[in-house]
Amino acid sequence: MKPKRHDKASLSRACNSFENFVFSNLFQSISWANSVNSRTIILKALLLGAHLTCQTSWLDGQTPNIVPSKEYATVASNLSRFIETEIRQKKIDAFSIALIDGDQIVWAQGFGIVDAATNKAATAQSIYRVGSVSKLLNDVAVMQLVEQGRFVLDDDIRKLLPDFAPANSFEEPITLRQLMNHESGLVRESPVGNYFDPTGPSLAETIDSLNKTKVLHAPGSKTKYSNAAVSVAGYAVERVLGLPFAQVLKTNVLDPIGMVHSSFELDESIQAELATGMMWSYDGRRFEAPRFALGTLPAGNLYSSVLDLAQFMRLIFNEGRAGNRQVLSPEILTQMLQQQTLPDGQQRSYGIGFRLGTLEGHSTFEHGGAVYGYATQFRGVLGKEIGVVAVASLDVANGFVSRVADDALRLMLATKSGTDPLPQLVSTESIDRTTARQMAGLYSNGKNQVRLFESGGRLMMQGGTYDNEIRRLGERMVVDDVQAFGPFVEWSPEKLIFQDAVWSQVPDVCPKEAPPQWAGLIGEYGWDHNTLFIYEDNGQLWTLIEWVFRYPLNQVSENVFAFPEYGLYHDEHLVFSRDGNGTATKVVAAEVEFARRGKGLNDSETFKIAPLLPPDRLREIAMGEEPPSEARDFLAADLVALTSIDDTIKLDIRYATTNNFMDMVFYNEARAFMQRPAANALGEVQKRLREKGYGLLVHDAYRPWFVTKMFWEATPLAMRHFVANPENGSRHNRGCAVDLTLYDLKTDNVIRMVSGYDEFSGRAYPEYAGGTSRQRWHRRLLRTEMESAGFDVYEFEWWHFDYPMWKNYPILNLKFDEIE
Asked: Are 375 and 401 in contact (CB under 8 A)?
């Protein structure tokens, strides 16, 4: 029989009743003890047992959350309201948090859902991938062996791993301490088993691949964060103990701590409680995160819950003790929490594994975690013995998770000090679309530039490493998204103030063509789950890596570029390999090989699909059905030919030819129609563009419903977001959508955009980051002019624009020769 599950309120009552029972019957229970000291010891033991029974009863599946203690009830209430508001705004499906005070978990709660298919609620017991927090548990395993005298922190690692031999041109050897402190000089990622590698190689194969790399700087001379380095330390544990790493950590670290629902491997029990992680990109893509095992297992492959990680926090506050077991000696734990000092006297930001810092004047220890689909923060305050663990099921949401963690600690510190009122938690609001479009433009402070633009009803800022959203907080504006909160922003027409600098709006002129020698390099590389983008921006080559990190590249030679001296990959390079035509076939970026995806800039062919059904069958299905009926009043259709509005509007009606994504003729005439208000608005766009030397080239406008039906039945499921569902009808069917691009009035040439028309790929997205600055500038010009006339761009296609009156018109199924 399965144990009965209890709600959190009844469990709390049961725990309180049990503790009261122990207290009230205590002296009867120990009356046989023959001394006062014996009775005192038994009294403490029984009370502790009662408390720990309620603290850890979740381990046997009895309760998914822990209700707040009386002292922290207000803190939990304030945080709950804030988290619920924020995860809705930031589209975070699941979020879990635990607060720890000394030996007690004083509150633990889940928010949102872990599985959209089943609508299963998130709890404090939900499992997440916790990314680099894994490193701390790896470091505990290493330090256990240091305590046993089997490892020496400052010995050459080759004493433990004789076959470990990356090229080291420096006199200093790499030590175990340097591996855990990120001062080894090793590359960030191993060539095999790296963060991008989905093949699941063994830890041994991963470490062996480092022998093909070189040490980047003298060991101990500077900090360079390295997943590979920490994994070498974990591999030493595996080799010395002669057991698989995951098994060693389960037996020697996780289980003794009380992290009995945690694992470095994804097994059935973990998967049953695992929150679905989500990936996202600046261009609007959102998809389920991959779950392959990292070859750098010790550095980032731990699966855990906030309740399990809370047990680890309790261990720290209990000087290395968990229950009746001393997992680490107090001396070893103290050593891990001490700031490391280099030979030159400089203090680093790391202890052994732990990152050290301050909050409200108090010393802190912490580590974050960022892995496919998840973001984690583990942070405690030394001397106050309070801590927080927080995890979200959204990729690179560490700015938000860290903000929640810090706010939680501030509230706990204020509670312990008796501060009244408690610090406020504030949520922002989106800036309205009209204001966002007024603020849009290019701004400069004399040295750098940033661009403000409206995207999907959000005001975005692009400049530097991240794209950030600007939101409203009362009368002020502030950067606020999953990556950051702050700084504040002030704006007035033509001027922007942020980061203690004044940024003036500058003319947004059409950029020059990208240097021709880079044409073969620009494009996409890597995998669907993690694509590397190489693009040009105003005469400099850039990369967008891990979906959200933008870095300018410095050219070293024809095919070699250096990452900047900041960010994830400083001190490392990108090396391109080209074919006979000068097009790169791959790039090795920071020792990771990324293969070319698609044809890149030279691709001028029409995109094609393999239809799911033959043409005759598609037409038979479509012509045998009727459009969906709609029970509401509509305006009378008034379709007009676009060329009758302005004869300088050019047509390239692909669906009247076989030059389209299905190689089929759909229209019997190469014409384009729209409802009169939409057509007139398009005419206004043409007039404004003419003044700038451009004209509109229309590919499609009004589309009969039967064509939409044929598109739908022919298109593979994975691409159907590029075609309309015939059950709802298309805005094209209502005569209020248009597919178009620009042409040059002087040359009559079609303007080259980032992708071709009807290309069913990420390059079609209106905010796709790749290509050249000139292509993106023209794409933005088209969008700006269309939006100024009331049109809205479709979220998946830069060429598709909808007129807002589409709801007022019926779905039509008229062939072109039936239009009066």
From this structure: yes
Q: What is the pLDDT of residue 348?
A: 81
- Half-sphere exposure at residue 358, Cβ-oriented, CA atoms within 13 angstroms: 3
pLDDT of residue 36: 36
Contact assessment for residue 225 and residue 216, using Cβ atoms and an 8 Å cutoff: no
Whether pTM exceeds 0.85: yes
DSSP state of 668: S
Catalytic site positions:
797
Give pLDDT, residue 346.
73
Phi-psi region of 771 (alpha: psi -120 to 50; beta: other; left: phi over 0): left
Residue 183 region, left (φ>0) first, then alpha (ψ -120 to 50), else beta?
alpha
DSSP letter at 516 equals: G
Beta strands in 212-284 (DSSP E): 278-280
Structure tokens belonging to residue 20: 């009261």
Looking at residue 14, what is its pLDDT? 40
d(CA 95, CA 531): 26
**Strand 523-526 relative to strand 501-506, pairing:** unpaired
Which residue ranges of the chain lie beneath pLDDT 70? 1-63, 342-344, 599-604
What one-character-per-residue DSSP string does 23-70 give?
A: HHTHHHHTTT--SHHHHHHHHHHHHHHHHHHHHSGGGGTS-S-BPPPG
- Residue pair 627/733 in contact (Cβ under 8 Å)? The answer is yes
Among the listed residues 238, 250, 219, the one whose alpha carbon sits nearest the alpha carbon of residue 154:
219
Closest CA to 612 of 760, 758, 713: 713
Q: Which two tokens stand for residue 119?
A: 């609508």
Q: How far apart are CA 70 and CA 72, in angstroms?
A: 6
Q: Which residues are within 8 A (CB) of 665 and not within 5 positions of it... i.e. 6 or more apart?
A: 655, 656, 657, 658
**Following CA atoms 257, 259, 264, 270 in sequence, which dihedral angle do they give, to the nearest 10 degrees?**
170
Strands 94-101, 386-392: pairing kind: antiparallel
Angle at 64 between CA 61 and CA 70, to 5 degrees: 125
The answer to whether residues 190 and 296 touch, using CB atoms and an 8 Å cutoff, is yes
Q: How would DSSP label each residue in 777-801?
A: HHHHHHHHHHHHTT-EEETTEEEEE
**Which DSSP string corresponds to 295-338?**
SSHHHH--EE-HHHHHHHHHHHHTTTEETTEESS-HHHHHHHTS
Kindly report, residue by residue over 114-141, the tens digit of the pLDDT.
999 999 999 999 999 999 999 999 999 9
Helix, strand or coil for residue 747?
coil
